[in-house]
Write a structure and sequence with these properties.
single chain, 5-stranded mixed beta sheet, 3-stranded antiparallel beta sheet, disordered C terminus
């Protein structure tokens, strides 16, 4: 599959910040101590900004809650005299991982507790018979556009209880299970009476 090989050309891995950083879909509550008429709860838009009644759009994606508060305070200071602003995270994007390709139930799943890549595939219903066990791709998200990839061999689990296949999943990880060569061939069935191949 062409898309499978494209996924292998990703960037270098960067360290993850322990503090939660705002992303699209999060909801934050903005409260002004002395001007409560401007209080509001807003969602982070797909472009990473929030639309505030007093200030217009303010970019906050990638910031911690405190960093976002300071940015809003700085913006509000252009309109208000010494504004006092508090910020609260009301709802946020739940940690998740995605499993694609030759599994029974491909899709996005909530990441609850410590899970390995093997656990992730199991949650997605397990590998199909058409899966290529030896070239499963794990993509660790580094940013919105860059990921670090690892090529995994699930057949090694028959010989060892530990290994890279048991690596812990992180928020935003993607597991891609490609199709094996045999299953590609099986898409064509030879009709004995005419001696020709037809795609299913």
């Amino acid at each position: 599959m062409r898309w499978f090989w494209v996924l292998l050309v990703c960037g270098v891995c960067l360290g993850q910040d322990a503090a939660y950083r705002l992303q699209a879909g999060d909801a934050i509550e903005v409260l002004y101590r002395y001007t409560p008429e401007y209080d509001q709860t807003v969602n982070v838009q797909p472009d990473g900004s929030v639309a505030l009644t007093l200030l217009g759009t303010v970019p906050v994606r990638g910031l911690t809650v405190e960093e976002a508060r300071l940015r809003i305070v700085a913006a509000a200071a252009t309109r208000l005299n010494q504004p006092v602003v508090s910020l609260a995270l009301k709802d946020y994007e739940r940690p998740h991982f995605t499993v694609l390709g030759e599994v029974e139930k491909p899709g996005r799943y909530e990441l609850r507790g410590a899970l390995s890549t093997v656990d992730g595939v199991a949650i997605a219903g397990g590998l199909k018979s058409s899966a290529r066990h030896t070239q499963i791709v794990l993509i660790h998200r580094v940013s919105d556009t860059v990921g670090e990839t690892q090529l995994l061999d699930f057949k090694r689990l028959d010989h060892a209880k530990k290994g890279q296949e048991l690596i812990a999943l992180r928020d935003g990880d993607v597991i891609v299970v490609p199709q094996n060569k045999l299953s590609k061939v099986e898409r064509y069935v030879k009709l004995a009476n005419v001696g020709a191949y037809y795609p299913l």
